[in-house]
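To: structure subgroup
Subject: Chain for Friday's discussion

All,

I'm putting the inputs and outputs inline so they're searchable in the archive.
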Amino acid sequence: MSIADLRKEYKLTALRRKDLDADPIRQFQTWLQAALDAGLVEPNAMTLATADTTGKPSARTVLLRGLDERGFSFFTNYESRKGRELSENPNAALVFYWAELERQVCIAGSTSRLAAVESEAYFRSRPRGSRLAAWASRQSEVISSRAEIEERVRELEKLYPDDSVPLPSYWGGFVLSPVRIEFWQGRPNRLHDRFCYTRQAGHTWTIERLSP
């Protein structure tokens, strides 16, 4: 079978205007809970798209680690490719795709760094191995071999023999504050339901149905 012949018919459910919460964050929380209840693998996985100052884009999968009235939070090495691009150009986009539920959420907005105290609190909640890895990895930089980074981890295990692995100065969180959130529900014959929330002045939202 060729790639062009791959087909999936979406038929689980519909999305109606009356079903939507007036607040897109609450609506997202409802859908995320449905993904959790369905037992999906890493329902908090999201594609993060960034761009440099010339507009050249890049994208990768990261994990959502916080959600509140400010927006969607995640953590990274500030010196990584995505960290550098977000520092140069704070505009970014997120995509959640829950294939088993035939749902997708597309989010666009502007990012800012989380306060150091929030990054510290999250870093300390991570397993020790993940904290050591944050020190060992010069994320996105070229390395000579796997052995190079494994040796670095062994050195760090000796340097920090107990659980007190400190937060690196170059590591922390971002929050994406949304200005646009689209909820997509797959429907038969590609006539999908799409509703777009757009932020207005005064932190209110308009909701519009989009053509499939």
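Points worth raising on Friday:
The chain is about 25% helix and 35% strand.
The mean pLDDT is 96.

D.
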